[in-house]
Design a protein that fits this description.
globular, Aspartate Aminotransferase, domain 2, Aspartate Aminotransferase, domain 1, 43% helix, four-stranded antiparallel sheet, alpha/beta, seven-stranded mixed sheet, homodimer
């Protein structure tokens, strides 16, 4: 049977690094296997696994950052609360694109949403004795579970695809009613499935967060990237990004510059903590830190202890990009709509060659084309090829991805991203998928 | 009695923020009090409390960072292990200025030594069941204790000033022999006292770290800043910075760019993990992370979960500064010797006006003038004014500092820094100290 990479090149390497089941391999281990295969065979992989911006960083950000460096900010510790300009523009951005009012003082820069979430897990899990468990509304970003593991926090999770609309409330309540959930986390649009929780579902989540006094961590890494919705991403004009912040005071929104502004390399996000949660006092925090306000502990204890703030020059870049977006000068959504174009073409190629989209619909509507997509393969007997096996077999054909099992998904398939797929790779992809399908369809 | 700031301006503000004892105030609260007083009275404070570089950032770093931004690195996630150029130059720097051999792969950029230490506390405290306590060789940097508090780790500490030379070994052994110390931490030169542990003392620490299998976290934030020693800071030439890395394989050295390169604003350091410790396998890490090597867990679990690495452009700045220092093009020690000049003048002013240096000698020799200094005031009855009270009274005279009690010190006094004191402030300082002394000397 013809493959692109000799099977033994893949198998020998996996054996060498002691991987027998790709469900248990890290993205780094899979990448190492690919790089070895590329080196040995000279064949370049279709890198569906790397969720890295594939368009240039915002020039507005770069210019502002260089100007800040010329002003000498590199020697001065950044204020742990963030530079005033960034805080002001972050609050303005939240109003412009989400239509939520938030005090600028409650918007804190973080070293990426990764740090913002880590700090949020710390603060939420220490605020109320007995509330010690994070509820993951899956599928999700595997590293957010690694964060809880690093901190020794308890975890609960479920695949939301099976509990949409009116099923969501009862499912959530079955967890929240136990009283041990300190926070819930999801991304919307969803990484990896690109499902989008609706306004009505967010209302359910918000109401239950209030009822059971649980903090919602809303990861808006892909803000406005539901490309089915016309008109999103125009400042101060509806429609707005749907958000749980419309329905509860128990929220922290993570606004990352990585994907929306293609600024992933510089590690910056803004954690936007609701005005009420920020000012709320917790006895356990007072006892531990001699500071009782949630937001103050988040900044002065968690963020301070983790890195003493965010690189000074990068804060100026973020402030400039947020401002330009609010001013209507920087149409960031137009730039990132390139991902939807690429994903549409990749999905068509997959569908032409016997693959299907694992999470294909969103309450009956097809999911949007966006940064990530999911795909699986049905065997001749009609069953899904198991996800780890699918990745293993696709590696022989020079195609990668990450197994959905690592995202808390119950479905068999892979997550892919088109972010770095160029148009000239599309015929290569088509041919490899064709060969794979030929080999597996009988 | 004449004061610079009306007493009620200070006292009313402290009452408002519920501070009755300045030993329990944070640096931020004290700063808020000063800023209020400056606003009310128009009098500028002598800001002894702010440990911020007072010289411009390295232009070599700025240029390299701007060039990296122009190359578009802002959109690409930095490799979690660090860019190859930085790793190579960090290992070279360790050889050039400390004369320790280390594999470049074991040098990891972090968002400041703050992140590097936080990650080290995580890794060290999880590696061996039962080893759950950090031993602080005090006096030290208060935030390093806050880090343990955030993580819920146990702490032990002692003031090393009372246990120098041959007393150090038995004192350390009294802690280490209990078997619960996972790591020891100190900075050398010491923040705040500017004492310098000697080569012989580091040999003692290293031998005991090996004997009791404890990791030494050596904070080299002030590398080469023992300005009593001629010839330090010349690449690849003795004398070298003394370091525990010469005496044990159980070390992590933190090399921060904040003070030595005046790059504090950009939050970058390099954690240099000994070759043997990096490769050492721990069962508890294997069980928790499915990775057993200490260094791999440090990078792929701790640093990854905390921020997904360090801002990409900043890594290029650090690499360029390290390289220029190794190449002998950038005489960083000459630049920072400005702190010693300022501190010498400030100390003379203190001594002329009835103050004394709290930690004045270092095994019989006067401590070096450097970034930080310590000072106290003796009452007419010959006793030391209590540290919190000293700060309180100095605030009336427009002078600030941090109370030594917050550093784990057993002495009554304050920590000061001359880093941002300009020559035109010296007569102002002299006059204020004179007034203070006049008011308190009888």
């Amino acid at each position: 049977m013809e493959t692109i990479i000799p099977k033994n090149v893949i198998d020998d390497y996996l054996e060498k690094i002691e991987i027998t089941d790709l469900n248990k391999a890290s993205i780094r281990q899979v990448l190492a296997c690919e790089m070895n295969a590329e080196q040995v065979t000279g064949q370049k992989f279709i890198h569906f696994e790397m969720g890295v911006p594939g368009i240039p960083p915002s020039q507005i950000g770069i210019n502002a950052q260089k100007e800040a460096l010329d002003r000498g900010v590199a020697s001065k510790y950044p204020n742990i609360e963030g530079i005033p300009e960034l805080k002001e523009q972050a609050a303005r951005f939240v109003k412009a694109f989400i239509n939520t009012d938030i005090d600028r003082n409650h918007c804190h820069p973080t070293c990426g949403a990764m740090q913002g979430t880590f700090a949020a897990f710390l603060a939420c899990s220490q605020a109320v004795p007995g509330k010690d468990t994070i509820l993951y509304i899956d599928p999700g970003f595997p590293v957010q579970k690694m964060q809880a593991n690093v901190l020794g926090l308890k975890m609960a999770s479920f695949d939301v695809a099976d509990f949409r609309a009116e099923k969501l409330g009862p499912k959530l309540e079955s967890y929240l009613s136990k009283g041990n959930i300190c926070s819930m986390i999801y991304s919307n649009p969803n990484n990896p499935s690109w499902m989008c929780l609706t306004d009505s579902e967010l209302q359910t989540i918000g109401a239950l967060a209030t009822k059971y006094d649980t903090v919602v961590i809303e990861d808006l890494a892909y803000l406005t990237m539901d490309f089915r919705r016309e008109g999103l991403g125009i400042p101060f004009q509806p429609p707005y990004q749907v958000s749980v912040s419309h329905y509860t005071d128990n929220y922290i929104m993570m606004l990352s510059g990585s994907k929306i502004f293609s600024y992933a390399g510089e590690r910056i996000a803004v954690a936007c903590i609701s005005d009420k949660l920020y000012e709320r006092r917790f006895d356990a925090l007072q006892e531990r830190y001699a500071i009782s306000r949630f937001g103050a502990v988040y900044a002065y204890d968690m963020l301070y202890a983790m890195s003493s703030g965010v690189a000074h020059s990068v804060q100026y870049a973020m402030a400039a990009m947020l401002k330009a977006a609010c001013d209507g000068i920087y149409d960031f959504r137009k730039d990132i709509s390139e991902y939807a174009r690429r994903t549409k073409l990749v999905k068509q190629s997959l569908l032409r060659n016997g693959f299907h989209i694992s999470y294909d619909t969103d309450l009956g509507e097809l999911v949007s084309d966006g940064f990530f997509f999911t795909f699986g393969y049905k065997l001749p007997d009609g069953t899904d090829m198991e996800g780890g096996q699918l990745l293993h077999e696709l590696l022989y054909y020079g195609i990668s991805g990450i197994v959905l099992s690592s995202t808390g998904s119950t479905r068999q398939g892979l997550r892919g991203t088109s972010s770095n797929i160029t148009d000239d790779q599309l015929p290569v992809l088509e041919e490899r998928l064709r060969l794979f399908n030929q080999a597996h369809s009988k």
